[in-house]
Amino acid sequence: MTTESSRSAIPSTVRIAGILVVLEGVVAMGFAVYSIFRAASGEHDQSVTNGYGFALWLALLFGGVLAAGIALLRGARWGRAVAVVAQILLLPVVWSLLTDSHQPVLGALMAVIVVPALVLLFAPATTGWLAQDYAPDSPPDADTDTSSGSGSERT
After folding, report:
1. Which residues of 49-84 are buried (b: 16+ CB within 10 A; e: fewer)?
2. 17 and 121 in contact (C-beta within 8 Å)?
3. Is the distance from CB of 95 to CB of 102 less than 8 angstroms?
């Protein structure tokens, strides 16, 4: 019984990564709402970018990121895949903000969220938690002994 309770425990690395990913999603959704209000006000030129289309794009993209963050907080393993892809896609954005866009403050703020989230998503505790589905009979912290041959053969 103790093995099952420790197996279902969500590591702190997953929870912290989930919080960071949720933060990304909430900020992007907030910017989507801001874009809608800005476009609805009529005070800004819509010939270059459409505020409604941009808000829809943000909502679709970062709605999935927000869902992934919530999934990580709840212990759903599928959230990690979406979160990892989002962090990898945001790394060039961070780099661009730090260098070519001449917006180092925004780039640094994004880097403080994106880089730790990516590191936590690949942390040993996180990958061990994910691997538990593939070795359900082994204890969570035990090393597998493949010298006997029973662990490497599948029927």
Report:
1. eebeebbeebbeebebbbbbbebbbeeeeebbebbb
2. yes
3. no
Q: How far is residue 1's CA from residue 119's CA, in Å, rounded to a whole number?
A: 32
pLDDT digits (tens, 9 = 90+) for 23-69: 999 999 999 999 898 888 877 766 667 888 889 999 999 999 999 99
Place of tokens 């505020």: 51
Half-sphere exposure of residue 124: CA atoms within 13 angstroms, side-chain side: 2
pTM over 0.90: no
- For the stretch 100-138, pLDDT in tens is 998 999 999 999 999 999 999 999 999 999 988 787 666
> CA 59, CA 66: separation in Å to the nearest integer?
10
3-state helix, strand, coil in the chain (%, to 5): 70, 0, 30
